[in-house]
Queue: 3 jobs
Job 1
Amino acid sequence: MKITLFDFQKDALQNLRKRLMLARPAASPEAPQAITLSAPTGSGKTIIMTALFEAILDQPDDQLDWPTDWQPQPDAVILWVSDMPELNEQTKLKIERQSDKVYRVGQLEMITTSFDEERLSGGRIYFINTQKLASDRLLTTVGDGRTYSIWTTLTNTARAIPDRFYVVIDEAHRGMTSGKGAATAQTIIQQFIKGNPATGLVKMPLIIGVSATPKRFNELLADTDHTQHKVPVPVEDVKLSGLIKERVLIHHPANPTNAEMGILEEAARRWQVMTEQWETYCSAEGERPVRPILVIQIEDGTPTRTNLSDAIKAVEDGIGRPLRDAELAHALMDKGGLKEGTRVIRYIDPSRIDDDPDVSVVFFKMALSTGWDCPRAEVMMSFRSAQDHTYIAQLLGRMVRTPLARRVESTAELNDVHLYLPHFNAEAVKQVITALQTSDDIVPAETGDGIQLVTLNRRAGTESIFAAIESAELVTYKVNTVRAQSDIKRYQAIAMGLTRDGIDPNSWDTAKADAVTWIGEQVVALKASGDFEKGRKSLTQVGLRTVMVTGVTGMAEGQEDYVVDVSDLDVDRQFEEAGRALGQGYGLHQLYRKAHASRDGQEVKLETIIVATSAAARAALESKSRTKFENLFDAHRSAIRELPEQARAGYDKLKSASVTPESVPWRFQDSIDFRRDPKEPVWEKHLYVETDGIFRTTLTSWEAGVLLDEMKRDDFAAWLRNVDRKSWSLEVPYQVDGIWKPMHPDMLIARKVGSDFVFDVLEPHDDSRADNLDKAQGLAQFAEMHGDKFGRIQLIRKMGASFMRLEMNKTAVRERVRQAASNTTIDSIFDALAQP
């Protein structure tokens, strides 16, 4: 693959492997198998399937930790079925872009009306759409020069290679019936599932349904004799990946208005701002350019009741320049050019919008709900009425993919989608939000009124505070956001990255040499303990027992035990498994073999296998690798901080991929996303403010009381409201019954001490909550690890009329909290050690 797979995509592929291992041997028209990949919109279904195709036709990608029991099928046939030719073309282009392993010239083939073959050829991926399969189409009839109908071709293929003919139904909910009593239904897709005696089509032996909404597909399968295998992709895992925008901001007039062109001007201004922000960001980060698109939904009519000339002028007035003809396009059902005055608005196929470098403004009616995959669409304006709220929600659900397939850390606005609805009131907007949240698409973490969802920027005059924050190298955690990896892999990965990024040219060579040395050391240790010979015996010899049964009595009358040597092939297979165990994708087993090339090859392989399967040896390798990883990260922390955002994030992910939580640098963004009501209280000296220089939020009585006490201090300089579960928030790990969870202390305080600043972490916490002990111990552990980077780290309660503070940056307090066994004990510690 040309791209790095997310953990949830690897999980889906692992589950697909398991299901296929069960389905392939049993598959036949008489015993059909059906696998349903239920993957939410935005999860990268085509990426998952591309990686699967590589594994079927070639070999699993190095990113996949697949065991050696998987057998590729180079002569397999894959048929991709959708209901639109545009979807097939889009999928074909995606596969070509994403795969680096297969798909040579001619290996991806569109089935056209001229196709006439007895069977589909092995080693290929074919594409067909249901429109070509209608009964009145050339593909489905014999004669006039055609020898085989497509139904005959498919039947012949299914009978010849049932275990390696994969029929992939894209968006499997299309064309499906909704109830169990539809066994006789004859839609095209149903024929693939149920067969059709009238056309001679047999049931396809191995179907993979790929959809965000497989309910109807599964209902249809329930009324058949298919063996079903389900592979779900969790929605929350997709949200955590950064593939989905974080917020949808819906803008609407406070009162009824006819000023729709004025609102379009405002939408155009927002689009222009985002265009400039993306240009700045991509230039600074060395990313490929992202060119946002303004999508304008117009009214029905011939071609529309919306005045397109006025709309174009409103956009031009909003952005302060004329639009070139190449920037304008439409996706109406009438595919010709639209002539509007002196302008000609060209037609563009929805599936081609994202790839067109010139298009900037797209007019449409209802046609973008299918065949459309355009992460560039970041601002939308709809001239339609409030009655269309469900459709607008469905459309919006396809606008939430991030253009770079990751969140942007530094500029919060680039993680937003904007929707302008001039004919919607507050109640109608609520209906859109409800429809979006109950749709089958993934929705961003926050969807709401643009009046409430705002972006905060660094407050003017706080430059010295933010500079001090950077110098202090404050830390945070990212609990459960990254899949844990072995420390062996983490060390190799960071070393490779440091060399690739020009930070440490020798680190990867050193890491590989370390691995070879450490494996050798463990071989010596295992030989000294006697465990090596035990391992060798179990690997090289297999004990067999022969039992003799007489034909007269049918009883066992004797037995003989003996030993046979294992095959070299068995050793080779276990050697490859050892390579995966030591670090998939880094070839450490091969490095060790090459380093000992002068010795007996099988002996070297046995050494590698025994080390990889020894718990003690693996633990030693993990420990050494962990130490090396931490040393490298600490030594190059400053250089990593100067890298572009995407590269920097990669190192943070490696740091967070520890089995136990590890800290990562707490980087303060230029802007952050925030939710508040315009009428909420105003608080002074917040680090981030709105465009009017004001910060609004509602605090609990305890939070407000503590903050007011802080503001009375002579050294108080600024503060940060630390919101739960934001990418920019401070996060502290704590354990509940052995499971790591994140906590978000309520506020960060900045104090001016001499010529410098000191930063405090304050957590007013209700003493009636059941999590007091766990969070107190988590905060104490945080202070133990990172107290030198902060001033005060306090757990705070209101006791009587005063707020009492338990200072975790004091050794005596930490010791008492660490030894506490209950919330009652924490109460006693407050009584004894807390101070106002």
Job 2
Amino acid sequence: MKKHFCLGLLAHVDAGKTTLSEALLYRGGQLRKLGRVDHQDTFLDIDPLERERGITIFAKQAILPLEGAEVTLLDTPGHVDFSAETERTLQVLDCAILVVNGTDGVQGHTLTLWRLLERYHIPVFLFVNKMDLAGADRAALLAGLKSRLDDGCVDFGTDRAVLLENIAERDEAVLEAYLDSGEVMDSEVARLVGERKLFPCFFGSALKLEGVDELLRGLERFCPEKTWPTEFGAKVYKISRDGQGTRLTWLRVTGGGLKVKDIVKGPDWEEKADQIRLYSGQKFRTADFVPAGTVCAVTGLSKTRSGQGLGVEAAAEPPVLEPVLTYQLLLPDGCDLHEALGKLRLLEEEDPQLHILWNEQSRTIHVQLMGQVQLEVLQRLAADRFGLEVSFGPGGIVYRETIASPTLGVGHYEPLRHYAEVHLLLEPGERGSGLVFDTVCPEDRLDRNWQRLILTHLEEKPHLGVLTGSPITDMKITLLAGRAHEKHTEGGDFRQATYRAVRQGLMSAESILLEPWYDFCLELPADQVGRAMTDLQRMGGEVSAPETVGEAVLLTGSAPVAGLGDYAAQVTAYTRGQGRLSCTLKGYLPCQNQDKVVAQLGYDPERDMENSPDSVFCARGAGYTVKWSEVAAAAHVDSGLRLNREEEDALPARVSRTSYTGSLEDDKELMAIFERTYGKVAPRAFQPQKKPARTSLSERYAIREQNLGPEYLLVDGYNIIFAWEELEAVARENLEAARQMLMDILSNYQGIKGCEVILVFDAYKVPRNMGEVTKYHNIHVVYTKEAETADTFIEKVTYKIAKHHRVRVATSDGLEQLIILGHGALRVSARAFRAEVEQAEGQIADVLKHHARRSGSQSIKAAMEKAKKERGTELDS
């Protein structure tokens, strides 16, 4: 019996993915003639836009018949601007082929795709393409795959005995069986592939059909099979329209089967499946019935949406990738705004990560998308499909907002014959956690149905922040209490109360503006490294130690999207075409110039009538408005939240307390160092704010009195190395030698200054690194753990120590300096710190000269102690 599986093709742009799809279909017998991208006659890139640009824009499917398997091949876009289309397709795959360019190796977007494949637990085969070109080194490429992707990457084109040994090493049970029999069963290999312990690698040239047959045989033998439930289920991954405008719902049947005229049910709708189409390229055939595992397009369904689960199938996880750029869409003179908006909504339906926004106050249309290429495609689609000749205003950044500390939000809605009150606890969450909703409200105080309705209203819309009107994120919102009226409460009343409670809480909190950051990979000639690092530092970026790749240098790190927006063109210009920049979305981090952005956008939260923070109360038969700052005092319900220390234990058991305590438990060794100095770190109860909190970094910070004790100096190791010319020169040849030099310099510095020195090095990119704290002579040296940068570690530590001691941080990182000041620490730029070190070296020289003139009755140590007492306190305020 033949296998049936769904196979996806993924790659960085220009890796040769479309050429490989042609080769697979040709060798599988589906094509009689090979098409080429440069000839604009490939089987799957059928849209005129795709053929003009030579890139895949829309995911498409083809039937790949093999001797022992029936394969549905899904070709996905490779350009980063259309990554959201790729992510949606991943939801229906059984396995994937990740194509890597043999002359470039693993690129930035390759890593993004790898993380997505890992998130969706998809087994992966790798095909390293373009091995016929000069510079393709098989051994070096395999080593790069192992180090940058996974150690389970195994070359399936090597000697059979070596291959079996490499496979067996991936699992103890397989290794025992191999040692007994000398063989490894195909079923065991398929199991390891399915468990993502093994990633078969094939090398070749798709254009010359080299290595393609080996890849096909590997897929037939080792692609794992799924079993499906008997009850109907399906997952929708795409919405499109055919040439006649018929709406197509693309789905994979994940249980039972689907027949023509079957009733398909959604959350609040049911419709009939009129036609089932099985596509291969542009052509399709109809089917009366499709079993589980089939990928098909269904007509007759008008309420479906991408990511939706049907039948027993659950809905897809929220997408990782989000648009980061926003533009105002400009329509031709005389064009009806609302008619054009309705047409553009159709494009948004087909691409959910293309956000079409209508601003009622300014009566303007805005679009949010991933990049410039997507903008050009949108312009062309609007013209071709709807005859709309649109243009775009200046671009901007899609910001997000969150809060710095917990706050209580109260919303009351009581016009005549209506009633609802809601109390919410808003807490900051981890970066990238999104919004989480929960309830701890007792059902004897508010009926379960009303509580569910409140949670629904929290989830149903993007709630806007109060700094710029950007959507909020990275927060947990918990329902604490509420009240309904037996006669007068309607469903819409709780909608109003819930929206106002969120808004009132945000107005009472300290808000933080978040901006998107890119992870970047910049390859350029060695003589341009200084220019690039200066540019990246100027835009507020973080750069790891340079790596030498052949004759070029590779810089990796992260930087704000606002700074990297058009930097690729600048790189091409100043390197004369030899440099290459690739960027992938990292996530949202605090905005470096919050005050400037807030002032430029000029958003006034109290004038936004659609998102009012005020509440409506009733007296003498008429409703009246109560200002947001006075709502809590006028509320009818006690929230039940105890905000003082004595009553902390009365907090509901499920209310998160992580926001009140803070901890360095993950860094136990360093924690011990700190606690020996200033004692145990006790949790603090949350204290209510007596006046509206500041919402701008420009307002004055409170200065707390610090205890006496040793001064702490934290040094961002790599930042200093690449800021000091002599250390940077050494680092280019030997990074370890540069680290050793800096450690020796700081040891001497500590000897004369007498402060506690903590030197921090990034090790966050080292897989499975647990972090390390060591003592080097008289200083502490910290290597951060995996997924923790030196910036993050320093910010966390300064927050703790600055409460009790005077703390200085040596760094030239602009964002880090801003956060350090907010924590009450003092900062020293790399240049100023260099001057301090030189001064300390001069003092050491003086001590040694003084000792040489003495008869020997006074030791060097005593002389240095005397120098320390005489120098006084030297702090850079």
Job 3
Amino acid sequence: MSDTPEWYRLAPAEAAAKLGTSLEGGLSTAEARRRLVRFGPNELQERRPPSPLAILLDQFKDFMVLVLVGATIVSFFLGEVADSIAILIIVALNAILGFVQEYRAEQSLEALKQLTAPAARVVRDGHPTQVPARDVVPGDVLLLEAGDRVPADVRLVEAVHLEADEAALTGESIPVRKRVDADDRPGLPPGDQRGMAFQGTVVTRGRGRGVVVATGMHTEVGRIAGMIQAAGQPETPLQRRLEQLGKILVLACLLVSGLVVAGGVWQGRDPYTMFFTGVSLAVAAIPEGLPAIVTIALALGVQRMIRVNAIVRRLPAVETLGCATVICSDKTGTLTTNAMTVRALYADGRWVEVTGRGYRPEGELLVEGKAIRPAPRSALGLALVCGALCNNASLEEARRGRERTWEVRGDPTEAALLVAAAKAGLSPSRLGELHPRLAEVPFESERRRMSVVVRGEEGAVVFVKGAPDDVLDLCTHVRMGERLLPMDAHLRRELRAVHEEMAGRAMRVLGLAMRSWSGAVREDLRAEEVERDLVFLGFAGMIDPPRAEVRDAIAECHRAGLRAVMITGDHARTAEAIARELHMLPPGGRVLTGAQLDAMDDAELAAAVADTYVFARVSPAHKLRIVRAFQARGEVVAMTGDGVNDAPAVKEADIGVAMGRSGTDVTKEASDMILTDDNFATIVAAIREGRAIYDNIRKFIRYLLSCNTGEILLMVLATLLETPLPLLPIQMLLVNLVTDGLPALALGVDPPDRDVMCRRPRDPREGVFARGLARLIAVRGVIIGVASLYVFLLALSVTGHVDLARTMAMATLCVSQLFHSFDARSEYKSLWQVGIFTNPALIAAALVSFAALCAVIYLPVLQPAFHSVPLGWGEWVIVGGTSLAGALLAGCYNLARAIWHRRAVVLRQRG
């Protein structure tokens, strides 16, 4: 920090002038584009992803492939030219297929990284707007609030109770209070430069505004970027298990291949041919493509999730989604639309109905059906003024074609208060001019209220809005008309009854209060100073209607064995009314409040969550306890969050879900998944996709290992029976190329089973071969291997033509495996139940693979290299009939297994 740039010692206005920007209007869009070209994107240097050439060369690093290539080159110089060229071509084609798989996986993960890139709020062309953080340029006017990660180095212009966690730079865990004084001294650690906000630090409290002075590698973080490299995608538990499985399979395949070679040599066969056979069998049988296909399936699944508005930030979350048993969801904006409208006011001891819908400031205030205009000094008038001034939202008129619309910038609840004031004839912008803000104590989820100090007609005035119970507790008087009444027990009970009635009508209720202020107005006013001895003005009751699609999503949760739990800061009766409307609260289901939760220890809470479906009046700290209570019962928990204080609970949950629209940067970074539409139904859709992805991974594991088992069994049985080799090395490699690649990839994009959400969640502890998958692999592998050997022996005994027998065995092995690619689509259903044509990609893959097989059999230019001969209709009847018989036999086994499974489910449900 000794080389401190001059920005640190310039006053904000001087910094803005030097950067050629306006502190009010920011840069123009055109100027921002020019500066982006000039200064480059706001990014730190990081590890570059592997180049396509590096990915291609990696395909030839496998030990067995290198052995095969080396042996092929030797055989080329020994005169086996045709065989050598054919083997090298197949190895090259396999490498190209592997390259395509890995390159697609890398591209998918890079696209995912771009989708989860942070955004920033800047002022462009005089209006606040959101841009990708990488597009922030020097001179941009940046807006900051609690939960934001600062995207660049900023000279602060405004700081309202602004604090930042600068541990990333200084190692100090205590947040630093920011200021906008012009006398920050150069040469000090960043924690002492309180007029600056630094890239990578986190706003923990308050809000601020500043001009960007440095981006990318020119920031303080950029100077130490060598120590800050982007973390790669972590391997999922399944990928780690498959990697371990792959090592075991490699050893097993090498052992079996060695036994085949040793057995052949012992039987007097040519050692050179047997060596080639063993190496080719190992190359064909080792499922080297399994890790890449798993990555592709996960990445493609993530791409599908993006289409349903869910961005998965960490691949392990895809697996965990299929195990989720509890979804803990916020109410506002997730279960509801978050399009708030004030429907009722209570002030001056009377009810006031507010008409109109949405954010259009058109409507009336009605008392007993008659329109009224509130008196300026009445409790109702002051309550509306309080709602409009104790407010950081804005309402702007916009035109879309000929239609006039109103756009909200800021919190929807605050926007609803602005609209209510406008309906009463009070202009929010005019009120702001008449009563400029002098100080602010921002909203905090622990306090559940916000306060401002404004200039009034007779001195400074404090306006407070927040949770009704908390505001009432701070009030010593009630305003009735222009009179002040002491807040006695009787009045307090009456007001609480009004609050209960509003909440019982599913309204979100805010309490509004005020007081005069005679003290000094300072930037660092504390809540305890201003939020006391308040005068109660009234209640504002808002409707936030449930999302139309959420009820169906909750019904789907019930079918899938998932519990949907509501967590909200709203009143218990409001939350209960919404939960009942959504069919979220079953008979006997409990509603637990934050106060009740505080009275419980962890063991009592773990017992209570068993039948609790609504948590009301809870704070972010409660959320963490709720997550741990569910986890203590063995539940796999998905938890939503948006505020900075939600981040610990989101991080603690098995699946942390952040809100894309309303979520803070900190919560998004703590999450596993981001909802771009903040919709509960999207969580359910993501769980559906997560289950489907895991199913597809099991499908191609089953397919690949069954096929490889069949190939190994064919060669082992032939060696034991001392018959001629049923497949030559080049033919084994061809089968591996034709059947292992495209069909396995197509299974990775198989559409979800129709009843994927009619099953209980998967046990997260289950292994790769759980639920009988190992038996399915073994049975199908035996059928494929025995069917291919049967056709080989039959052709050999009838014709005595070894090349014909090998061609028929090769065709039977390929066709049997292609049949298996279709019956591998379900573990309990027949192909007819699943639908033959529901996976066009698999049909295309099978046709391409079969066409490659036919080309080898019928094209004269390929026949010598692959030692194949043309097959007539009779031979194809044998090949097709045997392959089909094997598929039908496997189908009978699956049917018996399905019947047993259904019977076990029925018995479990009865018992």
